[in-house]
Amino acid sequence: MRRDVFQAIADPTRRQIIDLLSENESNLNDLINHFDMSRPAVAKHVHILEQCGLVKMEKKGREQYCSARLESLGEIAIWVHQYKRFWNTRLDRLEEILLKEDKS
């Protein structure tokens, strides 16, 4: 099942996992040590991130290693950008109105 990348960033724990993995790959056990929750709970979050394409899991020996695949965040950047343009236009219009009132 392919999940939506927006699901991944909706949860603060998953955002924290992405932040940690964006700096360095980590084995699953080390990653779990950063959280005050059970191993299965963290593993479930990692699994969701993997389904969203934001994390790649790779077995090296007996360890599972996680690495960030941040290319998928481009979809979010595009979505946010359209609203940035919207708000910039609105705020520019508000500035014009306030300047006109200030001159009156």
Keywords:
104 residues; 3-stranded antiparallel β-sheet; alpha+beta; 5 helices; Arc Repressor Mutant, subunit A; single chain
Give a description of the structure.
The chain has five helices and three strands. The chain is elongated and about 75 Å long. It has a three-stranded antiparallel sheet with strand order 1-3-2. The chain has a single domain, classed as Winged helix-like DNA-binding domain superfamily/Winged helix DNA-binding domain (Arc Repressor Mutant, subunit A), CATH 1.10.10.10. With 104 residues, the protein is of the alpha+beta class. The chain has helices at 5-10, 12-23, 28-32, 39-51, 73-103, and strands spanning 26-27, 55-60, 63-68. The longest helix is centred in the last third of the chain and has 31 residues, at 73-103. The N and C termini lie far apart (60 Å).
In a nutshell, what does this entry contain?
With 104 residues, the protein is an alpha+beta fold.
